[in-house]
Design goal:
By secondary structure, the chain is α/β, with parallel strands linked by helices. The chain contains eight helices and seven strands; from the N terminus they run βαβαβαβαβαβαααβ. It starts with 7 loop residues before the first strand and ends in a 7-residue tail after the last strand. Bound molecules: nicotinamide-adenine-dinucleotide.
Length: 250
């Protein structure tokens, strides 16, 4: 119950799906949690549930593509908890289209959230982590930051960018005792994949590539995030933790 005791974690996109699971698990393991999301009712409900379970949390409405909002949210986190040790750049959106069907504004919006969001997060969290004397930044990429697949060109390009942003940041911030790693989930049961998994044919196609033959629950990824957030991963930086039931193995 204390793998991240005494630490403060900021998790983006934490109102539902995997972000909610990361926030609840980090809180259960002792962290004070800053739950952020554009979905304020659901985000507040996550923070309330954490507090009802006896842990510490606040909710901040926060669009990760908004640079000024990052500065406000981090200020609020630091003024509430004194420091921030853990950042999970989790918020992301998906677009199921090949290049020739992708509109420029769709490409830009997706990159603003999936890539620029992680860039802003890394940039503005650094002073708070330097103050803490340590830090763990966890960027949620995807199996599609490692391999390609049909009809998700902008998404896959964004997740590839997140993978290398992670390694560049790991190189730059290791001297400050700040570790930066990426997590690469496979097919996970969240609102993002509801539509895909509800369609029997599409679901069968996706799951046929998973060695374990099933989609995962968000908690199965949250444990990887918890590990990277904790001091158990003290010698890990620039690494990519794949949680995909074997999807990218063969
Ligand atoms: N579900 C999967 O199978 C899967 C697989 C690999 C990677 N991922 C990645 O994991 C992360 C979480 O995915 P999920 O499946 O839980 O997604 P989800 O759609 O279920 O939840 C995403 C959350 O992000 C929030 N969000 C969206 N745009 C935002 C913005 N501009 N600013 C702040 N918050 C915003 C949403 O409100 C929502 O709460 C994403 O980065 C996603 O790309 C998901």
């Amino acid at each position: 119950m204390s793998r991240v005791q005494g630490k403060t974690a900021l998790i983006t996109g934490a109102a539902m799906g995997m972000g909610e699971a990361h926030a609840k698990l980090l809180a259960k393991e002792g962290a004070s949690v800053i739950v952020t999301d554009i979905a304020d009712d659901q985000g507040k409900a996550v923070a309330d549930a954490i507090k009802e379970a006896g842990s510490e949390a606040i909710f901040c409405k926060h669009d990760v593509s908004d640079e000024a909002a990052w500065i406000e949210v981090i200020d609020k986190g630091v003024s509430t908890y004194g420091k921030i040790d853990i950042l999970v750049n989790n918020a992301g959106i998906m677009l199921q289209k090949p290049v020739h069907e992708t509109e420029t504004d769709e490409w830009d919006r997706l990159f603003d959230i999936n890539v620029k969001g992680a860039f802003f997060g890394t940039k503005y969290i650094l002073p708070a982590m330097q103050k803490a004397g340590r830090g763990s930044i966890i960027n949620i990429s995807s199996i599609y930051g490692l391999v390609g697949g049909p009809s998700a060109a902008a998404y896959e390009a964004s997740k590839g960018a997140v993978r290398l942003l992670t390694k560049a940041s790991a190189a730059d911030y290791a001297p400050f005792n700040i570790r930066v790693n990426s997590v690469h989930p496979g097919v996970i049961k969240t609102p993002m994949t509801d539509g895909i998994l509800a369609d029997e044919e599409v679901s069968r196609q996706f799951l046929s590539a998973v060695l374990m033959g099933r989609a995962a629950d968000p908690i199965e990824v949250a444990y990887a995030v918890l590990f990277l957030a904790s001091d158990e991963a003290s010698y890990m930086t620039g690494s990519e933790l794949v949680v995909d039931g074997g999807y990218t193995t063969t």
